[in-house]
């Protein structure tokens, strides 16, 4: 078993449940704007959001473009007018949500006694830090790296290189844990990091990028460290 100097954790859908948090923020956004919320609206939002993030992971658009486009596309699909800046309101509401993935506190408390821990995410720095603070997770981390502050996005090589430079950690002794095969596993592996795919749905492993480890529960990470 390798001996690591540090462990990096992705944020959304690894530490914090984005699906639960975004559903709550989405409903609160519509309520704040006094727009009737149809049951199908959130499913439509998720479809658009996932499609845009897929394009971002392929390098076709930026994180900022994902955030700027998704509500415009949603309004067009639903046949409604954009009321104010829905993205800004959604972002504000999302920053107040902090629902965690199962077993997060337990694995961070355990791993944090052994290694320095870091959080790394695409998105907006202030929002991600706020969510980790509200969830009570920020104290576990030596530092938090977010794409808009780094000037690079996962899965770009520069994102991971920046994380290593700013943390002072060596790629040969760093473990990267995340839920996205494209953004986390492929991106981290490309710069020589060991990777652990958090796969709670039990999806079949791809031929490439093939993660060094696969866990369905975060508690299973104990056996890696």
TrEMBL record:
Write down what this protein is called. Noncanonical pyrimidine nucleotidase, YjjG family
Q: Name one GO molecular function term.
A: 5'-nucleotidase activity
Pfam families on file: Hydrolase
NCBIfam families, A to Z: HAD-SF-IA-v1, YjjG_YfnB
From what superkingdom does this record's organism come? Bacteria
Q: What organism does the UniProt record list as the source?
A: Guopingia tenuis
Q: Which InterPro entries match?
A: HAD-like_sf, HAD-SF_hydro_IA, HAD-SF_hydro_IA_YjjG/PynA, HAD_sf, PGP-like_dom2, Pyrimidine_5'-ntase_YjjG
The family database entries (SUPFAM superfamilies) matched by this protein are listed as: HAD-like (SSF56784)
């Amino acid at each position: 078993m390798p001996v690591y100097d540090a462990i990096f954790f992705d944020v959304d859908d690894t530490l914090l449940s984005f699906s639960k948090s975004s559903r709550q923020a989405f409903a609160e956004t519509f309520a704040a704007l006094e727009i009737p919320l149809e049951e199908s609206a959130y499913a439509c939002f998720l479809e658009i959001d996932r499609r845009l993030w897929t394009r971002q992971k392929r390098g076709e658009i930026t994180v900022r473009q994902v955030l700027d486009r998704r509500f415009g596309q949603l309004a067009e699909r639903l046949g409604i007018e954009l009321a104010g800046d829905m993205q800004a309101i959604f972002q504000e509401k999302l920053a107040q949500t902090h629902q965690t993935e199962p077993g997060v506190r337990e694995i961070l408390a355990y791993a944090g006694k052994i290694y320095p821990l870091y959080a790394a995410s695409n998105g907006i720095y202030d929002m991600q830090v706020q969510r980790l603070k509200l969830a009570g997770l920020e104290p576990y981390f030596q530092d938090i790296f977010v794409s808009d502050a780094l000037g690079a996005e996962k899965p770009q090589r520069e994102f991971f290189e920046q994380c290593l430079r700013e943390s002072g950690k060596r790629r040969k002794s760093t473990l990267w844990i995340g839920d996205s095969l494209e953004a986390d596993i492929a991106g981290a592996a490309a710069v020589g990091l060991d990777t652990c795919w958090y796969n709670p749905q039990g999806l079949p492993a791809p031929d490439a990028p093939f993660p060094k480890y696969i866990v369905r529960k975060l508690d299973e990470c104990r056996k890696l460290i």
